[in-house]
Design goal:
Radius of gyration of chain A: 24 Å
Oligomer: homodimer
CATH topology of the largest domain in chain A: Rossmann fold
Largest interface: A-B, 83 and 83 residues
Helix content of chain A: 40-55%
CATH class of the largest domain in chain A: Alpha Beta
Number of domains of chain A: 2
Number of helices of chain A: 13
Number of strands of chain A: 9
Structural class of chain A: alpha/beta
Shape of chain A: globular
Chain lengths: ~350, ~350
């Protein structure tokens, strides 16, 4: 009898969720599209799948354009799929996020290039996402898509983001291990990039390590790292080295982790097993110190906070007449009210300077 | 008698605002610091200054690291200060925003380098801002700092951002004219950057135009531009060119503006007068078509919306017991409630699946 009932958003989502759990690739692709489109069925299926999440290991890969991140991510995926490495091959999902591109063109092209390397492997699933205006929306969608892959049994999820701005940083921070990729020969602004990068990098990679300038890039990264993470070897005092405990960073959680620097040539696959070993090392570190749990908690709390924020604005908008909002905006445009004063007026119903 | 009154936040802000309006550089520097620190006096002074804003012309400059944006911005500032160009020299402010750097170190270094070129000119004021965690906070602060410069009588405000992620894009969008800077010889990801860039660029600059590869960069940019803005010359039909009206882009506002491509060598100053002419041309276009007014309106509305959002969250947080929020978060961590379901619980006081 159930088959004769009309399909509601709820029955669709139940079917989708079950098919995704059963490992059906087409259902997975369909659900990912529904989540990107923010459909009610997608949202509901996500709720049904949520209790199956929590097993995947998330690896963020970010860095400036032109450093070969995509190739590196492909190589890592191939490594995790390789039965000859001595480990059980993992199911691997790649989420390629490009916040700088409001078009899907580039992302689709990226998928095609990737498909050549990883084509036909049912243990790999690749999803590209391009920004559609709102950065918050993109981070939401990325978080949801990672949850779907997690529930669908993908053990390794590689989240690749373009660039190293705050946007990319926020998305890369969803990961357990964040890899920041550099390449030799970047220009004048490299100091500034590196300063920001130390905050988020668990592992630094100098890709294209066959290019000239690799030594100076490594030297610069090492110098920045030592400034950020002073270790005993750096404390020189009156001509002799003193053994001094490294100061505990403000995020005490990860006091003992100093990001290693790895050199790779992703196009040739060299340095990939070593990089995978560094990831495994960091993963063990996170588990042993309890930091993995902290990161999971932080990620889910950030998701909760961001959803709360969106909902509060939507609900408030529904309570206020469009007219009142428009009047406040007009007063701002006439420079009779500053934006701060307008907020006071709208939320308190009055402004007295 | 007033001099014997204790200094309140209100009297401080009044003094600051008046001193800034009187053109005192030290007061200006002090107010900018207070705004960055989000002090109540800074907020109040901003409210007092807001009615004096609206005269400045805002020029955004963004692009990937290593393209020489800072040097280009310096050269533009020098150009606008130059009494020999035939125009009245403008007062110029530079706001250098680095969302990727949570440290001020790089920004301060940047100021020093700049100071050499523009030192001692009372008609130039440079302010560097580095991210302190929250991107939204940085965009807010940038908007406020631009308003202070505007009220203080700076006719030209150059807003320079690093990179081309959504973060930088959002900040660059505050400007009337947005310049996107490229350089020859970037790597594999250049297609993806350019796709995002077309959305926001009013003027494209290929800096370091003395480097090899400039022709292929120009060809690629031209191709992307023609895809985005089809013009009559591209419509070929059965071997002959047909004159077809270019389709109106979705943001009808600026239907007729096709971003020009300019080549510069900022280190030598070449191409700068031509770039300044292109900016003047775009400015005239914006004024004539009414698009300048639209952009001002959009900017102030975005600021209002973002302030409303922050305030709504702060106010809601104050109404709910920390315990209830914590319980919902715990249920999420135990995978008993999805983040979406938790929001329903917190805002509606209940969740029924």
């Amino acid at each position: 009898m159930t088959s004769q009932l009309p399909e509601t958003s709820s029955t669709i989502s139940m079917n989708l969720a079950n098919s995704v759990l059963a490992g059906e690739r087409l259902a997975l692709a369909r659900l990912l599209s529904q989540i990107e489109a923010e459909s009610p069925a997608g949202k509901q299926a996500l709720g049904e799948l949520f209790s199956y999440t929590g097993s995947a290991y998330l690896i963020g890969v970010t860095g400036p354009p032109g450093t070969g991140k995509s190739t590196l991510v492909n190589r890592l995926a191939q490594y995790y799929r390789d039965p000859t490495t001595g480990e059980e091959p993992s199911k691997v999902a790649i989420v390629a996020v490009d916040p700088s591109s409001p078009f899907t063109g580039g992302a689709i092209l990226g998928d095609r290039v990737r498909m050549r390397d990883l084509a036909g492997d049912p243990g790999v699933f690749i999803r590209s996402m391009a920004s559609r205006g709102s950065l918050g929306g993109l981070a939401h969608a990325t978080g949801s898509i990672v949850q779907v892959f997690d529930a669908a049994g993908f053990e390794i999820i590689l989240i690749e983001t373009m660039g190293a701005g705050q946007a990319e940083v926020d998305i890369a921070r969803m990961a357990h291990t964040t890899i920041v990729v550099e390449a030799p020969g970047f220009g004048d602004d490299i100091q500034a990039i590196k300063a920001g990068i130390l905050e988020i990098a668990d592992i630094l990679v100098i890709n294209k390590a066959d290019r000239s300038g690799v030594e100076s890039t490594e030297r610069a990264l090492n110098m920045m790292l030592q400034l950020a993470h002073p270790t005993p070897r750096e404390f020189h005092h009156h001509g002799r080295v003193e053994i001094v405990a490294a100061p505990v960073p403000h995020n005490g959680e990860e006091a003992a982790w100093i990001p290693p620097i790895h050199k790779t040539i992703a196009t040739e696959g060299s340095g990939i097993p070593e990089l995978a070993a560094a990831i495994a090392h960091h993963r063990a570190f996170l588990v042993e110190t309890g930091a993995k749990e902290h990161r999971d908690r932080d990620r889910l709390q950030a998701e909760l906070d961001s959803l709360l924020q969106d909902n509060l604005v939507t609900r408030w908008r529904a309570t206020i007449s469009g007219n009142k909002y428009q009047q406040a905006l007009d007063l701002i445009l006439q420079r009779k009210l500053s934006p701060h004063q307008a907020v006071d007026t709208l939320l308190d119903g009055g402004y007295t300077p």
